Structures are given as C-alpha cells and as structure tokens.
Amino acid sequence: MPFVRRPGKPGLHYTVDDFTDPWKDAPYLVLQHGFGRSGRFWYNWVPHLAGRFKVVRPDLRGLGQSTENFDPEDRFTIGDYVADVAAIIADLGGPVHYCGESFGGLLGLELTARRPELVKSLTLVATPMRISPEAQKMMSLGYPTWEEALRTLGAKGWSEAMNGELRFPPDADRVMIAWFAAEMAKNATANLIAMSRAVPTADGAACLPEIKVPVLGLYPKQGRSNDAALMATLKTGIPQIEIVEIACEYHAIQMLEPELLADKGAAFVGGLESAAKAS
User: Fold this and answer.
1) DSSP conformation letters of 21-68
2) How far is CA 123 from the centre of its chain?
3) How far are the Cα atoms of 14, 27, 224, 231 from residue 237, in angstroms, in the given order?
4) How many CA atoms lie within 13 A of 25 on its CB side?
5) Who's near 48: CB < 8 A, 6+ residues apart?
6) 100 closest CA partner among 183, 187, 35, 19
7) pLDDT reported for residue 137
8) Tell me, what's the pLDDT at 274?
9) Cα–Cα distance between 31 and 238 in angstroms, integer?
C-alpha cells in the first residue's frame, strides 16, 4: 500500500485500485472521504470506476491507516489538509481528477482554489460550503459542543446517533449501517475530536471565485444537504457547474446510491478526458 512519509508531519496512506489496461495511460481519480471516515468507505464505488481510472482512496491524517506521526493534541487547519492531499498528488505525479464526499468535497474546493495546478476536475458529493455553527450544533446531538458529544459517545456511539439523525432513511440496510458505525469506530475518538476542531476552518464559499476547472455536483434532491441557498451559492459561484440531484433526502447518498453516483462521476470525468484527447 502506498505511504507518504514527511519529516515532522503525519504519514499519509492511500490505496490505488487500478484495473485499467496497462498499455493505456489512464487518469487518476482521487476519492476523498468525509469526516471521521477512511478510504474504505468508497469500497462500493470501486467496481464501477477502476476499469476506467486509476482510483486513489486516501486516508486523511489520523484516520484509517494514516496514523503514523499523528498527535491529536496538535492543532491543524484546512491548510494542513490541503498540504496533505497535495503531497499525495505529488506522489502520484498529478494532476488528478478529484471527487470528495461531504467534508472531502469541501476539502476539494479548498485544494482546487489554493493549488489549481493539481486538479483537472472536481466532483462534489453532498458537499456543504462550510461546517456552520448550525451544523456543529446538529452534530453536537444535544451535548454542549460537538467535541463533548464525541468524547461522551465515542466514535461508534456518535456515528450510530448520526446515522439515525441525518445519514440514512429508516428502511436502509441495517447491516450496512452497522458496518458504517463499526468502520468509524476503528478510528480513535481523540483523532475525530482533533478533526472536529479543524474542519470548521474550511470556507468553500470563499473558494468559489477561484474554481476554474469543470465541476460536477451530486446532491440529494431534498434534505439538509441540499437547500435553496446552497444551490444558489454553487450556481452563482461556479457558472460552469453541472448539478445532478438524486432522488433521496438523506446525506449518505455515497452509500445509498453507489452505482448511480459512480456512473455519473465516470461519465463526467470520461467526457472531459475524451474532449482533451480530441483537442
């Protein structure tokens, strides 16, 4: 498994799923996970993408297998996350097509605005413009703060509570939901707390004027991940964006509609690659 090591900085693990023809120069497609998760949460997208693209699934610092040299007491910001992803892209030889879900998409906005030379296209999956005070209150689950909720419930308990609050419909596969919480529980609660301090430093709306690459937005048709203000901000801030609304009102569309979303993403990236080769 590839691993990026940097003196004095957290180590970064990523997985490459590549079933493309070895004689073809297939592009890299980075799939970046959201808060408290890992690259394993893209497992059900891989079969739909890895025959056309070199699929890269990073683990953000402190999560998954990216725990080397990570101290949860160190303060870090969205700028550090951008530097982490930039280091992975440099290891790949970039630039790349980038797809991020939830906070992973917000990170993609920051990356594309700050390091435009590294990103060929951007796909946003149920991505907010920022982790607002209202969103932090919702993720606090009735506790005084988001951090207190994580500390009290632990990674698994917090995930289980959030799964019923926002992510999944009542009739969703209960085994899948249990897997989701168990996977999050593999990450130390202290590392999720450290992340909860950093992610509110991201401001996607401020990045929009700097986004010059083609953008695809994949959003639930209703619900908290898709409101009129968010859609207006995206369409005004990124005139070239293509938005596809999925018939779902829950946040975890990445897990609920993997084939549909992966196919939409593949068509978007594939079309850009074909156009580039034809020009």
Assistant:
1) -TTS-PPEEEEE--TT--GGGGTTTHHHHTTTSEEEEEPPTTSTT--T
2) 10
3) 31, 27, 20, 10
4) 6
5) 258, 259, 262, 263, 266
6) 35
7) 93
8) 94
9) 21
Q: What does the alpha-carbon distance between residue 38 and residue 133 come to, in Å, rounded to a whole number?
A: 24
pLDDT per residue as tens digits for the range 201-229: 999 999 999 999 999 999 998 766 568 88
Nearest Cα to 261, choosing from 212, 225, 208? 225
Structure tokens at 155: 């990674």
Res. 44 pLDDT band, cuts 50 70 90: very high
pTM confidence score: 0.96
Backbone φ and ψ of 235, nearest 5°? -70, -35
Distance of CA 173 to the CA centre of its chain: 22
User: Tens digits of per-residue pLDDT, 72-94?
Assistant: 999 999 999 999 999 999 999 98
Tell me how far apart the alpha carbons of residues 208 and 193 are, in angstroms, rounded to a whole number: 28
Bond into 95 cis (ω within 30): yes
195: its two tokens: 């992340």
